[in-house]
Amino acid sequence: MSEAQFPIVLTPLVVDEHQAAQMLGISTRTLWDYRKSGEIPVIRLGRLVRFAVDDLRKFIESKRVGMVSDCGPGE
Q: What is the DSSP string of 31-53?
């Protein structure tokens, strides 16, 4: 008997601006604004600009807000 062969699924380490914007659910213009302000770092590979998937995850986590109570004023 031989071991079952499973395909290896590779998760990309970096993505381009269109992929990054799509992952975040924002426009490429908004992504550019975050990039310009330094909120989302970039990786330069020669002339190519790429975004680390880990940096995108950290950005999303930094935007997370706490739970708001369901009770309104006076309840």
A: HHHHHHHTSS--EEETTEEEEEH
Q: Taking the CA of residue 70 as centre, how many other CA atoms within 13 Å lie in the half-sphere pointing to its CB?
A: 0
CA dist., res. 41 & res. 43, Å (int):
7
Tell me the two tokens of residue 1: 């008997």
- Mean pLDDT value of segment 52-66: 94
Provide the whole-model pTM: 0.74
Query: Is the pLDDT confidence value at 38 over 80?
Result: yes
Distance of CA 43 to the CA centre of its chain: 14
Please, which residues have CB within 8 angstroms of residue 32's CB and are 6 or more apart in sequence? 17
